[in-house]
Design goal:
It is a single chain. The protein is α/β, with parallel strands linked by helices. It folds into two domains: 184 residues, SGNH hydrolase (Rossmann fold); 44 residues, no CATH class. It has a five-stranded parallel β-sheet with strand order 2-1-3-4-5, with helices on both faces.
Length: 236
């Protein structure tokens, strides 16, 4: 039986379900994708490896790229961008320090400061930092191209790009300027299609209120729709 391998590389948008659900409704689009493809092609074995991880920017993807493509998939889905494009209230190095807890006492200090001082005034600190994202648009373009070139060179996989979801008004209020960034970064993604023979999902019809209710991550219904759109691009 023919075996088709699919890998998802990206940020938490590829794994989180919002609001959080319990089984059997806690599936992300990678899990729904296997079901849909297995129904569509009964004579083909499909596997989906979901390598998405929390807070993943392109700067985090590149050092791990060999690990992320080590199964040499036939299709690679890139779902990256919102951690890169969002204007931030704290620098990435502080967020990294807190996440990886390199030093418990220093991490505890940062956690206290951010939870008590920064989070209640996020928009103020975003403006204080000059509305800076973790990855600026020129670096985003360069790094995205680097990832695509490496994938093509090492795997020759079919590539499917998922644009960045337009943030909700709640996200924009907390992280002002993020909506404009997302629009700019999505234009960068669209311009890469011809250069790398990639496909892109059309997500313009996906309403944020219902399908990604927290303004970033998909709901159960959102994941189902994304899986259907991906399945339509996998033709055998």
């Amino acid at each position: 039986m023919k075996h088709i391998k699919i890998s998802i590389i990206g940020c938490s948008v590829g794994i989180r379900v919002r609001p959080p659900m319990q089984k059997p409704f806690n599936k992300n689009y990678g899990q729904y994708l296997i079901e849909k493809l297995s129904e569509k092609y009964s004579n083909i074995c499909f596997s989906v490896n979901n390598h998405a991880f929390t807070r993943a920017t392109l700067k985090d993807i590149i050092p791990r790229i060999d690990e992320l493509i080590s199964d040499y998939p036939d299709y690679i889905i890139l779902n990256i961008g919102i951690p890169d494009a969002s204007n931030r209230d704290i620098p990435k190095w502080i967020s990294d320090y807190m996440t990886f807890k390199s030093h418990k006492k220093i991490s505890a200090f940062f956690s206290f400061f951010i939870n008590k001082i920064v989070k209640p005034r996020r928009s103020f600190f975003v403006k204080l930092r000059g509305k800076k994202p973790w990855v600026n648009s020129s670096n985003f373009d360069k790094l995205y191209r680097n990832v695509l070139e490496y994938i093509k060179k090492e795997t020759n996989a079919n590539i499917i790009l998922i644009p960045i979801n337009t943030p909700s008004d709640r996200i924009e209020k907390q992280l002002p300027g993020t909506k404009n960034n997302v629009e700019k970064y999505n234009k960068i993604i669209s311009k890469l299609l011809d250069d790398y023979q990639a496909n892109i999902l059309d997500i313009k019809d996906i309403d944020g209120g219902k399908f990604y209710p927290d303004g970033i991550h998909y709901s159960t219904e959102g994941h189902k729709i994304i899986s259907e759109k991906i399945a339509n691009l996998i033709v055998e």
